[in-house]
Structures are given as C-alpha cells and as structure tokens.
Amino acid sequence: MTFGLTEGLAIHLNGTDLPDEDATNDINDLVAALLDSVGAEGRMQSYRQGPKETALYFYGPSAARMADLIADVLPRFPLAQRCRVLPLPFALPSRT
C-alpha cells in the first residue's frame, strides 16, 4: 500500500458582489465543468454555502495542478467572477 498526502483546493464563489443575472447562474454547470477540467487529478469532496460566499472543496495529489487545470474554466462562468482560489492549509492522508 502506498501512502502519501492529498492536497486541498478551495474555490470561494462571491455571493454578494455579482450582478443579479450572474449570481443566478446554475452552480451545477460550473461544478460539472470544474470536475471535467480536473479529471483524474482531483475530485470535489464537499462544499459550504454561507451568507456571503459558497466554497467548493477539491482534493487531489497537487493543489497547484488542480489550480492550473481550472484556470481556464473559471473565466467562462459569470458565477465565478471575483472568486478566490486558495490552497487549503492542511493535507489529508491518501487512501491509495
């Protein structure tokens, strides 16, 4: 059994500063495009919806690689305007 680390990446979607027509886009379309872009390099584990933003949490072997893979996706979605993409400050044990 191989042991390693799984890195995390959080995408914080701005829920307060977008025009109404942008804020009402379907988040499922964005999530599907993000999942397609990361492919086998990661997967979405959870999300958190708060009063000011929604955070999507992705985990994979490299947070930097996932950030590179999603870089072209985010500008295509008005819902992702003014989002923040941050590596998570901790790592989870790998299940591989």
UniProtKB/TrEMBL annotation:
This is Uncharacterized protein. It comes from the Bacteria. It comes from Catenuloplanes nepalensis.
